[in-house]
Amino acid sequence: xxxxxxxxxxxxxxxxxxxxxxxxxxxxxxxxxxxxxxxxxxxxxxxxxxxxxxxxxxxxxxxxxxxxxxxxxxxxxxxxxxxxxxxxxxxxxxxxxxxxxxxxxxxxxxxxxxxxxxxxxxxxxxxxxxxxxxxxxxxxxxxxxxxxxxxxxxxxxxxxxxxxxxxxxxxxxxxxxxxxxxxxxxxxxxxxxxxxxxxxxxxxxxxxxxxxxxxxxxxxxxxxxxxxxxxxxxxxxxxxxxxxxxxxxxxxxxxxxxxxxxxxxxxxxxxxxxxxxxxxxxxxxxxxxxxxxxxxxxxxxxxxxxxxxxxxxxxxxxxxxxxxxxxxxxxxxxxxxxxxxxxxxxxxxxxxxxxxxxxxxxxxxxxxxxxxxxxxxxxxxxxxxxxxxxxxxxxxxxxxxxxxxxxxxxxxxxxxxxxxxxxxxxxxxxxxxxxxxxxxxxxxxxxxxxxxxxxxxxxxxxxxx
Length: 465
Prior knowledge:
This protein is an alpha/beta fold. It has three domains: 185 residues, Rossmann fold (3-Layer(aba) Sandwich); 116 residues, AICAR transformylase, duplication domain (Cytidine Deaminase, domain 2, 3-Layer(aba) Sandwich); 77 residues, 3-Layer(aba) Sandwich (Cytidine Deaminase, domain 2). A six-stranded mixed sheet has the order 10-15-14-13-11-12, sandwiched between helices. It has a five-stranded parallel sheet with strand order 4-3-2-5-6, with helices on both faces. A hairpin with a 2-residue loop joins strand 16 and strand 17.
């Protein structure tokens, strides 16, 4: 096959040593010369492999307590040499490296564990990876342990050679990997989430069957910054694979129920709540939310802000529900939910109120804003009617105001007893949104409160209410 390159010399420099023996065994099988940095050489020699030290070609040992190991012109010349440069390498007494295997200091893991340190920022490893990736016409680059098996299979399949298709694919991954690495470092150094540069890099966390529609491809990406918060942190405890729409709705449900300190439940359809409620018991809140609009709740996504107990789980399995998202589940609750094995059950970590931004893609442009965690303050409100709201009405207004924030504009919520009675969502006319909400509330709207996501420009909505 055109583009095949025999791997005669490999350069190995790995922080994570797991899996190296299999790679070294394959290289030995095909008569490959192995060069390695200090720690990697020691590891492989102890396991019986013949390995040459890079010091033989650089002429110096590691410097600055290991800060400088592979940053040397000879090392990079061996990697970056093109086919036309091989005679120059030979004059310098340097072999041409055909394979670069490097994995980086675990900065991201340390960051996620709260142990980030400048000493875990890899410089030489990134340089080796980028050099190998740049010269993919001749050099194969492998930069993560999960790729080792693929490398071994490539060598086995091609009698010790790599193909151009393999090298190009590995190079593309390598550049993405170093971009992710740099993004994590930049996020740590710069606490400003909306500074002059918004760096968004992600690793595919979940390949979806399709996007919003069956003819669209879809995937979920986890951010490079392991401390960043998002739906990628959801742990699926049971159920079918998640869809694009499942993830959108689960995120919407999670944001809404986290508005409340008291036990709260919401049922979401197409990112809008069709019912929400607060109660003293979680199961009561769920039943009230479901019964607020039982027709729309069928096949919905349920969000809960408390550990799910067995009683709540029993109520959930009474009807068809696509997804449940909650902070935790009792063992007995999971046993009940398991009677509906296709239902997706998600566990989410606590929602932070700072340290992240909301981003929307407008084609290739990015629109960013801080998340809205603003709460109303009763003392700042001005009552313009002769009658003050009762304490119960104030509680309902607070509840309705928190719910309407999560309804697509123009949005109206009619509520009573901290339960939604009617929701008007996504209407071009505010008065039409109110009409839909009142129709949903029916006779229950008498004595209820109304919340709007924006001001009333005319009295028509007030007259209708």
